[in-house]
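Q: How would the C-alpha cells look for this protein?
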Amino acid sequence: MNDLEFCKQQISAIAENTTADLSAKVIEFLKKRMPIEPAHRAGLKAWAARELARLETLPGGGVSRLVPHNQLAEVSRRMTVLQTVISQIEAAE
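A: Here is the predicted structure in C-alpha cell form.
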C-alpha cells in the first residue's frame, strides 16, 4: 500500500470513527503522515475534492428534512474531514 492509499484509508477511518475534534485529528494525522511526493499530495487533494463534490450532491437536494438525521451527521463529519484535508494540503504547498 502506498502513502496515498494509506492516507485515504486512515482519513476515511477518522471520519467514520471520530465524533469530536475531527479537524484536530485530521491535522494531527497529516502532520505525521502527509504524503512526501507532490504527486501523492495532489492525488490526495483531488480525491478529497471528488469525495466532497459527491457528498454535496447526495439525495435530498440540500434540504436537511429530506435526509435522515443519522445520514446527515455522517455526511457532515465526512465533509468536515475532507475540507480539512484540502485546506491542510493547500497550506503545505
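The mean pLDDT is 83.

Residues 3-92 form one domain.

Upvote if useful.
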